[in-house]
Specification:
Blueprint lengths: L1 E3 H4 L9 H10 L3 E9 L11 E6 L5 E11 L7 E7 L2 E7 L12 E6 L3 E3 L8 E3 L3 E3 L2 E3 L1 E3 L2 H4 L21 H4 L2 E7 L10 H12 L12 E5 L5 E4 L5 E10 L8 H9 L7 H13 L3 E5 H7 L6 E6 L5 E3 L5 E3 L5 E5 L2 E5 L3 E2 L12 E8 L1 H11 L4 H8 L6 H15 L3 E4 L2 E3 L8 E5 H8 L5 H9 L4 E6 L2 E5 L11 H12 L20 H15 L3 E2 L5 E2 L1 H4 L22 E2 L4 H11 L6 E11 L8 E11 L18 H15 L5 E4 L5 E11 L2 E9 L1 H6 L6 E7 H6 L16 E10 L4 H12 L3 E10 L8 E10 L8 H19 L2 E2 L9 E2 L1
Parallel strand pairs: 2-3, 14-25, 15-18, 30-33
Antiparallel strand pairs: 1-13, 2-13, 4-5, 4-7, 5-6, 7-12, 8-9, 10-11, 16-24, 16-25, 16-26, 17-24, 18-21, 19-20, 21-22, 22-23, 27-29, 28-29, 31-32, 33-34, 34-38, 35-36, 36-37, 37-38, 39-41, 39-42, 39-43, 40-41
Helix pairs in contact: 6-7, 7-11, 9-10, 12-14, 15-18, 21-22
């Protein structure tokens, strides 16, 4: 929220230490994220990066002045000579402003003398230039009357800035319009501070100064309001209060300049006096208001007394809102309606048919309290964020309705010339009960670790408008002020308020007096971190993605999905369901990064959400997903130009390295067919009888759709199942003191025989002395029959108690060959082939 300090000073006195005020607000939970300087230099001690600066209006060079007379320039048709008075001095300058005419006098303007540094109104962007004396068509001009653009007050450069009639002549402009605007980040639990009065209350509590609330004179002269409009609330659980007031004979025109300047400084665009007043009160009190054209309501009622009701929309109803869009309403949308149908989206936007226009003469002013959840849902559904919906969705106390309405009516009577109807139409079916909390003093010390006197606690709470009574020496009775909705947890909330105003920085740091409990390990998280460490060691980078997605994005990887977990109130059209695949999310990250980098290796450990029949909550399972593309090695200047690309065995090797690090039983990779993977480059990952997941190359069709230049290798496995295979203790076998014997064995098998099946058969036939089986050659070609392939292995044998003899190894080899021939149809390669069974 933007807080002009000149406006804030209406409610609380401020000293000159602006930097100190900013620090106190930030420490109290109202972080000041930016500062805008309007015509003034930076305050001493200000240390902020987000500092927006305009020209500094020198106090001896930029003044409020009054036009004495305007003459035609003797040598130019479009220029004028303007004589202005500032203080006891008079100056004549040349101007081409189209809003000054020959014969004008009495207007209040801004005069800048030579030496002033202002924005160049004719340059692109904000360019500062020093004003110098110059002859313009033969007439010396030693100053200028300024536009809003040149002063940094806006973008208007067509005419000069005309000030209010009561602007003090001769006063430095910095004293009249100079300002500092704080950009305050208001947290959701401090919605009461989405107003100038709310901020003033905080400043008063922090500085020990009183708050001055605005006062106005009630002048009601028109017919009673209750005879001119009837209000009904059909859903009191969504609308606790609805107050209507009527003002007649208004003149819709521009708002006074002081009000327009305040709205602009606070980030709002002026429209007209009636609408600007509702926005002004919104910023002042934090209470959204809406103005209806009362005569249009009478027309819609057929000339009868308008009947206003607050209800839910009916199926098929529509409303054309102030932005000109015809909106289809649903039964969950809260609306303001009359006999013909909806006239406003409650708390979000009014209807175009009853908006205030220049011809409006009677205004019905609405001030209401709406349910935060209902307003938040409606605003998000129609994508209509606004200052009103922001405040309603965070919570506005219904007791703010009456003073905010009275303030707006007073301003309309003053600045729109209206006659206020007597009384109000105030429907208040569901008042909030007054909150009274018993605060034990011992609880304050226990929660804050700070011993404060009862007088200090009373002072701190009373500075925030809490009403405090002492019940006894150990207990206070605290009544919550009517503008606070955030005190929900009773004693703990009060202790937080005490600490906030006392100052978090003043609370001494203390060590925990109790003995720390023994640390309890979490094997599941430890193993998950071990998986991360191994994958990072293999050159992959972890990503974290949203668990929210759409069925269409996951469709390639979940061909037969379970019913999705739907979000009742999705944050966007791309986040409507809970995911059932992690690899889709990782692949999306890879696609986005592939625009800038070719070699990418990503992984994610994340949850999927599977709907269970007749279960309240879905099943949440952890999955591991990988996505890789690009070259096997990063390029180096001395390498060949054509570096090898990643392939199936790079991905398979990562899985095997992970399995080895976790000491799980050997994994099997079975040929498989998946619609999203390249045929012949896909496998199922199994361990014993359990399917852990799949891996392979992304199908070329999908690679082309995603516009990826290199093949993509992806994997997804069930991390819960993988970690369940990790043994509680890892078996250890002492190293043998005796040398190993290595045997090279070349086998010819059918092309259909899987290498993993062959290795399993070798291990089964090799006995306890077989230590390892390593494939070192695959051969197809001359001397190998068609439909066959040759696989060459190095077998390592080692006994724990002696050195194996050649005869023992030969017997084992013969047993292995005989077993393979009977199980998979393997035979040794011929004598003319390289590896055929040689021990070394």
């Amino acid at each position: 929220m933007k807080v002009p300090l000149s406006w804030l000073r209406d409610y609380v006195d401020l000293d000159d230490d602006i930097a100190g005020l900013i620090e106190r607000l930030t420490l109290a939970g109202l972080e000041v994220t930016g500062v805008r300087l309007i015509g003034v230099p930076p305050p001493p001690g200000l240390r902020l990066h987000a500092l927006e600066r305009g020209p500094v209006w020198d106090r001896d060079k930029v003044f409020v002045a009054e036009v004495v007379e305007v003459h035609k320039h003797p040598n130019a048709d479009r220029l004028h000579l303007v004589t202005v008075a500032y203080g006891d001095q008079i100056k004549t300058v040349v101007t081409g402003a189209p809003n000054l005419h020959v014969g004008d006098r009495g207007q209040k303007v801004v005069l800048a003398l030579a030496g002033a540094v202002l924005f160049d109104g004719h340059a692109q962007g904000n360019v500062l230039r020093e004003l110098k004396p110059a002859k313009i068509r033969g007439v010396l001009s030693e100053g200028m009357v300024c536009s809003a653009r040149e002063l940094g007050l806006g973008e208007d450069h067509e005419g000069i800035l005309l000030l209010d009639d009561d602007a003090p002549v001769g006063v430095p402009l910095a004293d009249y319009l100079g300002d500092i605007v704080l950009d305050v980040d208001v947290l959701p639990n401090m919605a009461r501070c989405l107003s100038l009065i709310g901020i003033a209350r905080e400043v008063a509590a922090l500085t020990g100064r009183p708050v001055r609330l605005p006062v106005w004179e009630e002048l009601e002269a028109g017919p009673p309001a209750e005879t001119q409009v009837h209000v009904e609330i059909h859903v009191p659980e969504l609308c606790r209060r609805y107050l209507a007031r009527l003002i007649s004979d208004v003149r819709v025109a521009a708002a006074p300049m002081w009000m327009q300047r305040r709205l602009l400084s606070a980030g709002m665009r002026p429209i007209c006096n009636v609408v600007d007043i509702t926005n002004y009160v919104l910023l002042e009190w934090g209470q959204p208001l809406h103005a209806f054209d009362y005569d249009r309501l009478v027309e819609r009622a057929g000339g009868k007394t308008p009947q206003i009701c607050v209800r839910l929309a009916r199926a098929g109803e529509t409303l054309r809102t102030l932005d000109g869009v015809e909106r289809q309403l649903a039964p969950e949308h809260l609306v303001i309606a009359d006999v013909l149908g909806p006239i406003a989206l409650a708390g979000v936007m009014g209807g175009a048919d009853t908006e205030v226009t220049p011809s409006t003469r009677r205004v019905l002013l609405e001030a209401a309290h709406f349910d935060p959840v209902s307003i938040r849902r409606t605003a998000r559904h129609f994508d209509l964020p606004s200052e009103s919906s922001l405040r309603f969705s965070r919570g506005v106390h219904p007791e703010i309705v009456a003073p905010a309405s009275s303030c707006a009516i007073h301003l309309m009577r003053r600045w729109a010339g209206g006659v206020v109807a007597r009384g109000t139409v105030d429907q208040y079916p569901a008042p909030l009960p007054q909150q009274v909390i018993l605060l034990p003093l011992a609880e304050v010390e226990r929660l804050l670790g700070l011993r404060l006197s009862v007088d200090e606690i009373e002072r701190l709470l009373q500075s925030l408008a809490f009403v405090v009574h002492r019940l006894d020496a150990a207990t206070l009775q605290v009544t919550v002020p009517p503008h606070r909705l955030d005190i929900q947890e009773g004693v703990s909330d009060l202790c937080e308020e005490i600490a906030r105003i006392y100052g978090y920085d003043r609370i001494p740091a203390t060590l925990l007096a109790d003995v720390l409990p023994d640390q309890q390990g979490n094997l599941d998280l430890t193993l998950e971190d071990k998986v991360r460490d191994r994958l990072v060691a293999c050159g992959l980078q972890e990503v974290v993605t949203y668990a929210l997605t759409t069925p269409e994005k996951e469709a390639p990887f979940v061909p037969s999905p379970l019913p999705y977990v739907q979000l009742a109130n999705p944050i966007s059209a791309e986040r409507t369901v809970m995911r059932q695949s992690v690899v889709a999310s990782v692949l999306d990250v890879l696609v986005r990064n592939a625009r800038y980098e070719n070699n990418l290796r990503f992984f994610e450990i994340g949850k999927v959400y599977l709907q269970r029949p007749e279960a309240t909550f879905p099943e949440e399972k952890r999955r591991l997903a990988l996505a890789m593309t690009g070259r096997r090695f990063d390029p180096f200047w001395a390498d060949p130009k054509d570096l090898p690309e990643l392939d199936f065995f790079d991905l398979k090797g990562i899985v095997e390295a992970l399995a080895a690090d976790l000491h799980v039983p050997p994994l099997q990779f079975r040929p498989a067919s998946f619609s999203w993977l390249h045929p012949g480059q896909a496998a199922e990952i199994r361990c014993a009888d359990t399917s852990l997941g799949w891996l392979g190359q992304l199908h070329p069709v999908w690679q082309q759709r995603l516009e990826l230049p290199h093949p993509v290798w992806i994997l997804e496995l069930d991390l819960e199942d993988l970690l369940s295979l990790v043994p509680a203790r890892f078996p250890f076998e002492p190293l043998s003191e005796y040398p190993p014997v290595k045997l090279d064995l070349a086998l010819v098998v059918d092309e259909t025989v899987c290498q993993s099946r062959l290795v399993e058969a070798i291990r089964a036939a090799g006995g306890t002395w077989l230590r390892s089986v390593e494939l070192f050659d695959v051969y197809r070609g001359p001397s190998i029959p068609a439909g066959k392939k040759s696989l060459a292995y190095t077998l390592t044998f080692q006994a724990p108690d002696r050195t194996l003899t050649d005869e023992e190894v030969a017997r084992i080899q013969a047993h292995i060959v005989a077993t393979l021939e009977g199980t998979v149809g393997a035979r040794l390669r011929g004598p003319d082939s390289p590896a055929q069974g040689q021990a070394h």
